[in-house]
Amino acid sequence: MIKARPLPAEPVLIEASPEELSALAARFGLGAVESLTATVALDQRPRAIRATGRLHAKIMQPCAISGEDFPVTIDEPVDLRFVEENQRAPTPDEEIELEADDCDEIGYAGEMFDLGEAIAQTLGLAIDPYAEGPEADTARAAAGIVQEGEQLGPLADLLAGLKKD
């Protein structure tokens, strides 16, 4: 949790504890989260607090094909805006112009906002749900799964024999 006023002058270093790493692995269905750190600079803007930096994590992720865990390194930029929830909402007829950095807004109430949870969510979004590990091709072959552009079976063998070398 970060106090909204005054903001820390130096970048905030977030480093997950062993208990938090375990909780993140369970939350995101991972074999393990071995490390998670983020360095985030906070900047007060007129209607929001801008948080920019980098997230670094090492995880053990299940292969989308074989289900076996394999190591993945995540290096992801962080660019978030924390907006007070009690700001005046636009009227239905009022036109709103959105800028590129308006898309990752996180509302907060009170004097503090949860930067740690925002970093956890950034990790969740950075995980590729279809990542394939080093044994994916072996698992496909064992299951008889045909890859795009590949053909298996007697007809494929016959056609391959007809091809000119």
Automatic annotation (TrEMBL):
Keywords: DNA-binding. InterPro entries: YceD. The keyword DNA-binding applies. GO terms for molecular function: DNA binding. Pfam families: YceD (PF02620). It comes from the Bacteria. This is DNA-binding protein. It comes from Erythrobacter neustonensis.
